[in-house]
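Chapter summary example.
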Amino acid sequence: MKNSIINIDKRHKDILDILEKKEHLTTIELAEALDVSLSTIRRDLHLLEEKNDIIRKFGYCIFNYDNKPESDHSGPVRLKQLLAKEASKHIQNNDTIFINSSSTALKTIDYLQVDHLTIVTNNMKINYSPQNANYHYVLTGGEMRYPKEALVGDVAINTLSAVNADVCIVGCSGIDLENGVTTKQMTEATINELMVKRTTKCKILVADHRKIGVTSKFKMADISAFDYLITDQFSPEEILHEIQKLGVTVVQVT
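The structure predicted for these 254 residues follows.
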């Protein structure tokens, strides 16, 4: 069984490598290139499409370049929605919550079912999210960092230092057993670290499979600092099992 999984993972990697070089190929061309049956390649392409690694068109498929690791705004939209919806279940009436610059964390707002809430965030894109007249929205202020529209710097730090939140929902760039939870920007790592430290009840990390086993540039927290890791069904089970040993509840959405 283990060898079978390894073989499938290798074949998926080979498919992505070929598509990235060739730009687009038909199902028949991929089956011939990998010397596998059409039924096998169709199953592979279905899974890769679910993971948003490829885009299937009529008669052919293409590599999804938006999902390259260095693309800051990329990500499988459907998976982000599932992660955000799961995270929203941990928000209770009258909570104060932190949301960082993560697009996945911000999507949690779309699924909230509570009547009264205070949202504290450094994510200026909250302006494009659904608004509720009974919610209080607090922007940290600070220096604007593009293209994420993230607020950073001393002003943002001072605002967060004066708040204790019930729940934080934080996204990241990487989660690695040795190097912890990391992000690409040093200024954002400082903000994220402060959000985690000043959360009193429930600390939630949201990350799709592309982030698991990855180390980015700047550490924001140990994995064990979080109560929950919400990820998807495509994340590697062996790493998730080790994360659970650290006392973190792992939830996989499907």
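To summarize the output: The chain is about 35% helix and 25% strand.
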